[in-house]
Amino acid sequence: MFDPKIIRGRHLELVEETPGAEADLELAAGTDLVPDDDAEVLEGELVDPDDYDEDEDYEPRPPAVIEHGAYFVAGVAVTVRRVRESRTTVVYDRGIGAAQSSGDHQTALEWVKERREFQADRHARRFDWIELPAKVIGFLPNAGIGCGGLLVVLGILLAIATKDPAQVVAPIVFIADIVEFTVVVVSATWLYVLIAAPIVGVLAFWAIGRRAVEAGDVEWLATNADVDMDIEIDERTIARALDALRIAQISNHLKQGLPLQFITTARKDGRGTHAVIRLPAGATAAQIAEPKRRAQLAGGLYRATKEVWLTVGAEAGILDIWAADKGALEEGAGPYPLLEEGVVDWFKGVPYGKTLRGDALNAPMEGRNTIVGGIPDQGKSSAARVIVAGAQLDVTVEVRIWVPDSNYDFEVFKPRCSRYVMGAETENFEQIRDDLRELYEEIQTRGELLVKHQQPEVTRKLASAGIGLHPLLGLIEEAHIALSHPEFGEEISYYATEIVRLGRKRAIHLIISTQAPTKTSGIPRDLTRNCSNGIAFAVGDHHANDALLGQGAHAGGHRATELIPGTDAGTALVKGFTGQRSEMVQAYFLSVRKENDQVTPLIRRSLAEIERRGKAVPGTDRPRALTEARDLLDDLSEALDGVEARMRLTDVVGILRKNAPGWDPYQRMTGADLGTHLARLKIRVYKTGNIPSVDPADVHAAVAKASTADLDEE
Question: Is the pTM value of this prediction over 0.70?
Answer without folding.
Answer: no
